[in-house]
Amino acid sequence: MKREKILVVDDEEDILELVRYNLAREGYAVVCAASGEVALQSAKDDPVDLIILDLMLPGIGGLEVARRLKQHSDTKDMPIIMLTAKGEEADIVTGLEMGADDYITKPFSPRILIARVKAIIRRRSGVADVESEVLTVRELSIHTGRRHVTAGGSPLDLTYTEFQVLHFLARRPGWVFTRSQIVDAVRGNDYPVTDRSVDVQIVGLRKKLGPRGKYIETVRGVGYRFIES
User: Fold this and answer.
1) Is the pTM for the entire model greater than 0.70?
2) Nearest one of 218, 203, 187, 21 to 116, comparing CA atoms
3) N- to C-terminal Cα distance for the chain?
4) CA gap 109, 126 in Å, rounded
5) Residue 112, C-beta contacts closer than 8 angstroms, at least 6 positions apart
6) Contact partners, residue 27, CB within 8 Å, separation at least 6
7) pLDDT, tens only, 94-122
8) How far apart are CA 203 and CA 140, in angstroms?
9) How far apart are CA 140 and CA 216, in angstroms?
10) ∠ CA(90), CA(91), CA(95), 5° rounding?
11) Where are the domains of the chain?
C-alpha cells in the first residue's frame, strides 16, 4: 500500500519533531525542512502528497513559499496546510488567497492536525466513480478526478479551494447555500474560517471565470448559488 508523503516546513525544531513524530505514527512518510528555500527545492525535487507549512520562516517566508509553489506547474496541485502562530482574520484570508487548503493556528492539537491531514488526503484521493465524473454545465466542463476545468474549451487555473467551491455549487444549480454550508462542504465541519474567507474565494473564482463568473449569483442575506440554465 502506498504511503502518502508529507513535507513539514518549520524553523522551530521542537515543532518540527512533534509534527514529524505524529505523522510517522499514523504511517505517513515525512520529509522535513527548516527554511523556505529548502522547502521549495525539496517539493520540486521530490513531489509530496501534502505540505504542512509555517508562515514565519527565515529567508523566504511561508506565504512566498506558497505563492511560488502554486505558480509552478510541478507543484501547483500539492495541497497546503498552513500551521502558524498568525491567527488574525487578515492572516487567514491571505493564506487562503495564496491557495492554502487549510489553516491551523499555534498552539495546536496534534490530533486535530492529523484529522485535517487525513481529511485533505481523503478528499484528494476520492473514490473511483467520483474520480471519473465529468460535470458539464453552462459552457463549463469540470473533471473531478483530474481537478481540471475548462470554460468554453479554454483551461482554467484554479486553486484547490476554488475548484472545490465551483464543483460544489455547479453540481446543484439553482440551490442556494449559506457561507457556512459552503465551508462545511469543501473543508469539513467546524472549520474555523469566517464568512469573509468564503467571499474571497468567490471573488477569485468569478475573476478567473471571466464572463461566466455571472453564473455564480450572490443571494443577499443568504449566500450563493449557481444559476440554472
Assistant:
1) no
2) 187
3) 44
4) 26
5) 104
6) 3
7) 887 787 888 888 889 999 899 889 888 87
8) 18
9) 12
10) 115
11) 5-125, 128-226
